[in-house]
Specification:
Blueprint lengths: L5 E3 L5 E3 L1 E4 L12 H13 L4 E3 L7 H15 L9 E6 L8 H15 L4 E6 L8 H14 L3 E7 L3 H9 L6 E5 L11 H7 L3 E5 L26 H13 L2 H17 L4 H10 L4 E7 L11 H7 L8 H11 L5 H4 L10
Parallel strand pairs: 3-4, 3-10, 4-5, 5-6, 6-7, 7-8, 8-9, 9-10
Antiparallel strand pairs: 1-2
Amino acid sequence: MSSVPRVRLSGGLEVCRVLNGMWQVSGAHGAVDKVKAVAAMQAYVDAGLTTFDMADIYGPAEEIFGQFNSQLKSRSSGNDSPALQSLTKFVPRPGPMDRKVVEKALQRSMNRMQVDSLDCVQFHWWDYRDKRYLDALGHLSNLQQEGLIRELSLTNFDTQRLEEITNKGIRISSNQVQYSVIDQRPAARMEHFCLANNIQLLTYGTLAGGLLSERYLGKAEPSSRAEINTASLSKYKNVIDTWGGWSLFQDLLVALETTAKKHDCSVASVATRYVLDRPAVGGVIVGCRLGVAGAGQHISDSLRSCSPDLKLQQEDLAAIEAVTRRSRDLMALIGDCGDEYRS
């Protein structure tokens, strides 16, 4: 098993700095074979990538994790079984947020994941105008104090709301946000607040759904549904369009590939390392297309990205930032982190 670097969240949970993202089993990336998905998780654990990120709305993700974790324990004796870290999300529909509603949702996740308590609950809320998110977080905080939750975290909250919640005395361990060499909005406001309040950023979209790879270097702009055939590709192609378009994106890929060749690694590893090195970033979530037909595993890229011998130098950063400086300001166009999910 490789020695994958870890970060300790404020409640004491240690997670890998590269997390295995399970959005890809939600159904929006192709049909999922649950048996194959469970089996595919073993290769990640064998590589030392033991942290899995999922959500109650990611289709069978929690059930797949639960089945794998149960099988892993049954195959191992005593302390032979590597400890897994499971981060899930509580993404409620708008409505009353009394304690029973919150408890029921958490119990459902625990049943699916086959656990007695939750390592980390990352709370998402769709509409800031509905202030019942504070009710939900109050109950989650109480349940944390009672031992049902180890880490209480957020997903796609902006800096203003993060500050509001923290000022209410609710301890937040992390905030999961979009962050990449393309989308650097967290650097505008959020990083500073997180550093001052011991909050880690867990980032997604860091590889732009796979677009930040050699596969797209020198290629014509994809436009058809056959070319943009997953939820990730569609989402991040739109981000690229807003950021600066395909021509500028090609310039970015050239800069990333030049750096990758210099360090004998992939474009994906450089793009991941770039974000891992940002202030307040605890970890990067890399999607795993577990049990999806035609999906490749990119474990070696993930391991290389967090290897201590991959060190981006000032000249590497200057070459990358010479391109990103020519892009549009996503903070001005979209707003703070998570604003793309709210009207």
